[in-house]
Write a structure and sequence with these properties.
48% of the residues are buried. By secondary structure, the chain is α/β, with parallel strands linked by helices. Helix 1 runs antiparallel to helix 2 (51-62). It has a seven-stranded mixed β-sheet. The chain has a four-stranded mixed β-sheet with strand order 11-8-9-12, covered by helices on one side. Strands 1-2-3 form a three-stranded antiparallel β-sheet, with helices on one face. It has ten helices and 14 strands. The chain has helices at 36-44, 51-62, 73-88, 95-110, 114-144, 170-179, 196-207, 220-225, 251-260, 292-295, and strands at residues 7-9, 16-19, 30-33, 151-155, 184-189, 212-215, 231-234, 238-240, 245-248, 265-268, 274-275, 314-317, 324-326, 331-332. The radius of gyration is 20 Å and the shape is globular. The chain folds into two domains: 7-137, Up-down Bundle (Four Helix Bundle (Hemerythrin (Met), subunit A)); 146-332, 3-Layer(aba) Sandwich (Rossmann fold), CATH 3.40.50.10470. The model has no long low-confidence stretch (mean pLDDT 95).
Length: 342
């Protein structure tokens, strides 16, 4: 498939170029980020999204805080640390963002010379992108082994190329399986309320020539009951040490239904999504988003203004409901212990 690049360096090398995912599937529009304000806005408004992709965007974006005229090492360090804090707070659940920013700040701490620091930061951000691309390929190769020929696969949200620096995570397994000559049919939950499944995953899959059916989230149970799903595979935004997984809201009920119908439930994620410092899903901070995403998403009022809204961006799927977790290293099966994984 032709590689989608949701985040890259701008042509002149002085900014970050993103594919504005808010405009998909109607328009494939690109946007250039030229400041920390631009980066924070793009991540917070989901112009760039997906745990690995926002980590890459955050790392690249941090270079925009660098002032080439500043020569005081301590002032440079403070400026970059402050910018990293601002970016970090845009999406608190996805661990990849904090992981990437911490890598960038390690470069700042180790650099004795502000004059060469910008190039060092740019090199590190490029390494993060390149590493993610390689990890996606490895995830795809491990995950494809779990997908039999003729499989009917259900996925939720978007864990494809749009969410990463490479082929994706959950969708990478599908792409590699198809490369291997397997016949795969994909069913995609719409993924309420922002429809990342129907707007993004279905767009990717049709672009790649893979048969895809979009369904409302609440229809997944009926499909499984009818025996029309062979396996589920989803991505992740944070994986705790015990194997609990935070992913897009709606993943947890999908896992419950899959267990009830004896359908294998797989999670796919790169090393950067595993968080050994978080003991369990109970310790994961869940981001709550604006009420109007539910009340009047996409410009259409669907709830009265006076109604309260519960709009968590993620839920936590207990490790006990997960058949296996696919990383770039291996296929991990229960009992999970990621306390030293990294």
């Amino acid at each position: 498939m032709h590689l989608i690049e949701p985040v890259a360096w701008s042509t002149d090398g002085r900014g970050v170029r993103i594919l504005d995912q808010r405009q998909l599937p109607l328009r494939e529009a690109y946007r250039e980020l030229r400041s920390i304000d631009d980066v924070c806005d793009a991540i917070q408004t989901l112009a760039v999204r997906g745990a690995p992709a926002i980590g890459i965007a955050g790392a690249m974006g941090l270079t925009l805080a660098f002032d080439e005229d500043e020569t005081d090492r301590e002032l440079v360090r403070r400026r970059l640390a402050s910018a990293a804090d601002r970016i970090r707070l845009t999406r608190p659940t996805a661990v990849n963002l904090a992981w990437a920013l911490d890598r960038m700040l390690s470069v700042v701490a180790a650099s004795p010379n502000p004059a060469t620091l910008r190039d060092q930061l740019r090199d590190e951000a490029t390494r993060i992108l390149d590493e993610d691309r390689a990890m996606c390929r490895h995830i795809g190769e491990h995950g494809a082994a779990l997908i039999p020929d003729g499989a009917r696969v259900l996925t939720h949200c978007n864990a494809g190329a749009l969410a990463t620096g490479g082929l994706g995570t959950a969708l990478a397994a599908i792409y590699v399986a198809v490369e291997q000559g397997k016949r795969v049919e994909v069913f995609v939950d719409e993924t309420r309320p922002l429809l990342q499944g129907s707007r993004l995953s279905a767009w990717e899959l049709t672009r790649a020539g893979i048969p895809v059916t979009v369904l409302v989230d609440s229809a997944a149970a009926s499909l499984m009951r009818a025996g029309q799903i062979d396996l589920c595979i989803v991505g992740a935004d944070r994986i705790a040490a015990n194997g609990d997984v935070a992913n897009k809201i709606g993943t947890y009920p999908l896992a419950i239904v899959a267990r009830h119908h004896d359908v294998p439930f797989y999670v796919a994620a790169p090393r950067s999504t595993f968080d050994p410092s978080t003991p369990s899903g109970d310790d994961i901070v869940i981001e709550h988003r604006a009420e109007d995403e539910v009340r009047c998403g996409f410009g259409l009022t669907t709830a009265p203004p006076a109604a309260d809204v519960f709009n968590p961006a993620f839920d936590v799927t207990p490790a006990s409901l997960i058949t296996a977790i696919v990383s770039d290293r291996d296929v991990h099966r229960p009992p999970f212990d990621f306390s030293h994984f990294g």
